[in-house]
Specification:
about 525 residues, single chain, alpha/beta, elongated, three-stranded antiparallel beta sheet, about 5% strand
């Protein structure tokens, strides 16, 4: 069973925490969970609210972010311990106690309320403070009384601080608080995280089956595909967050669009008469391994886009899924038509934008060390030298060895490996070389430009060149790889067009593209 290891660790934690608090041996515990504090808080809440685990324990769970004043904290704790619910029927009153007094005026009245709660019986009480690091900012004067709550109130109460920060970061100075009993929650492993995501899929599948819904997004037959999907989601997003709930949120937002092509093929097969004889189809046909790899490769960019938007909660998962409902088959058909794509780009771009895009393609295809050879002109105007191998007629033994070594190093062309990243300065330098070689005759003659290249340098400094770069970036013809708000270093780009589009641009501008490429066709 895939969840055996995870369940065993949860049971060990439950046994440990209940044995410590039920015996009232330790009045103050500090639990550190750097990765999933919300899951730990939910687990502790289920432990103490379940009467089977701790039958004689009163439990109060507060959030230090919500209880930002002392009175809110006092009232929330006393209401939770007494099982009192604030409602309109009772006038929205807090727990009145036996004498009907208020216990939220000060720490002394709060301690008096705890003693009055234990007049008839002395149950063991547990106070869980979630996000305890916020006490240092909101209620610093209450940290010491809460850590010494059992000592000051003379009742059996255990205080548990749960935080993603260390105790050394929030403890009061001069040793005013006692040293807690530390419990550090280890970060979940990759398999534990994947098992938790798969468990959520099974829970949703069972819930939908009992509800009788017609939606097959969480059909039990899709579980093998979902296992591979969540592993891919973890590989993409774990570099930025290991929070299981955040990964579950991102996976749930992208899963309906991911499984949509599979469900469409199944519905088309059923429409063609491939369903069962009774008109029902209880099992779904999953794609083969190559089909799964196509799905994962196609939806990988959308996973990073979902992480950028959903992790900071710029929108919700439902709206994001509706806005990013991509038709996989239509997108692949568009990608398989390079000539149509090239004609559209060439027909609608101005002349300067075409030169900028062609310069970007050369900067992403040629290595940076080849720019001086391909675009530089010396005093004798020597011809450009591209990479080339030795002639077979003149090749000796050493030449053959060097040729074999060169073939091993350059077996794959850069055009097949993908575009290289280049800075803005290099793009402008290549653009200047292209304009000087191929656009001088098309410019109006200016008598006050005497030096060679002076007119081109002035053109590169004009606003419309940078405006063209910005426009091409918004069109996704150029991809900016550095953040816009980053000030240090030049902006970095990479080209977003194919070789066929670049060839159409070069043909329209009458630029010899193969002569300018380090590794020509």
């Amino acid at each position: 069973m895939v969840l055996v290891g995870l369940i065993w660790r949860v049971r060990r934690f439950v046994s440990h925490i209940t044995s410590v608090t039920s015996s009232f041996a330790l009045p103050f515990l500090y639990i550190t969970d750097r990765h999933n504090p919300r899951i730990t808080a939910s687990l502790l809440d289920q432990i103490y609210r379940n009467s089977g685990d701790c039958p004689s324990t009163r439990f109060a769970h507060i959030n230090a972010t919500a209880c930002f004043t002392a009175r809110l904290l006092y009232d929330t704790v006393l209401n939770a311990l007494a099982g009192w619910e604030v409602a309109w029927e009772n006038g929205c009153r807090n727990w009145p106690g036996e004498d009907g007094k208020r216990y939220n005026d000060s720490i002394d009245s709060f301690l008096h309320g705890l003693r009055n709660y234990n007049v008839d019986e002395e149950p063991t009480m547990v106070l869980l403070v979630e996000r305890a690091e916020r006490l240092k900012d909101n209620l610093p004067d209450l940290i010491v009384p809460l850590t010494r709550l059992a000592e000051l109130s003379q009742v059996k109460i255990t205080t548990i601080f749960l935080s993603s920060a260390r105790w050394e970061d929030i403890k009061p100075p001069l040793g005013a608080s006692p040293d807690p009993y530390f419990i550090d929650i280890d970060p979940p492993s990759k398999q534990d995280t994947i098992d938790s995501l798969i468990f959520e899929f099974r829970s949703t599948s069972i819930t939908q089956a009992h509800a009788g819904t017609q939606d097959k997004t969480y059909h039990p037959s899709l579980l093998p595909l979902y296992e591979q999907y969540v592993e891919h989601v973890y590989n993409v997003c774990s570099l930025y967050t290991n929070d299981i709930q955040e990964l579950q949120y991102i996976a749930a937002a992208r899963w309906p669009g991911f499984v949509k092509p599979v469900l469409q093929e199944q519905s088309e097969a059923n429409a063609d008469g491939d369903s069962d004889s009774d008109g029902t189809c209880n099992e779904l046909t999953l794609p083969a391994s190559d089909g799964r790899m196509r799905l994962l490769k196609f939806f990988t960019p959308s996973l990073t886009a979902a992480l950028d938007v959903l992790y900071p909660r710029l929108t919700n998962a439902t709206d994001w899924a509706l806005a990013n409902d991509i038709d996989m088959h239509a997108s692949e058909e568009v990608q398989c038509q390079p000539n149509a794509e090239g004609s559209i780009v060439v027909d609608h771009l101005p002349r300067m934008s075409k030169f900028v895009l062609l310069a970007a393609f050369l900067a992403s295809t040629n290595p940076a060390k080849s720019d001086m050879r391909m675009f530089g002109r010396g005093a004798d105007k020597q011809k450009r030298r591209r990479r080339k191998s030795a002639s077979p007629k003149k090749a000796g033994a050493q030449t053959i060895v060097a040729k074999v070594h060169s073939c091993l190093l350059h077996t794959v062309s850069q055009r097949l490996l993908g575009p290289l990243v280049f800075p803005l300065d290099r793009l402008l330098a290549i653009l200047g070389a292209l304009l000087e070689e191929n656009d001088v005759e098309n410019r109006p003659h200016e008598p006050y430009f005497e030096l060679p290249g002076e007119h081109t340098d002035m053109e590169l400094g004009r606003v419309h060149v940078y405006a063209a770069i910005t426009e091409l970036t918004s069109m996704r013809a150029l991809h900016r790889t550095t953040a816009v708000e980053k000030l240090e270093g030049p902006p970095m780009y990479k080209c977003g067009i194919s070789f066929w589009v670049a060839g159409a641009l070069a043909k329209d501008l009458q630029v010899p593209l193969n002569d300018l490429m380090w590794d020509p066709m």
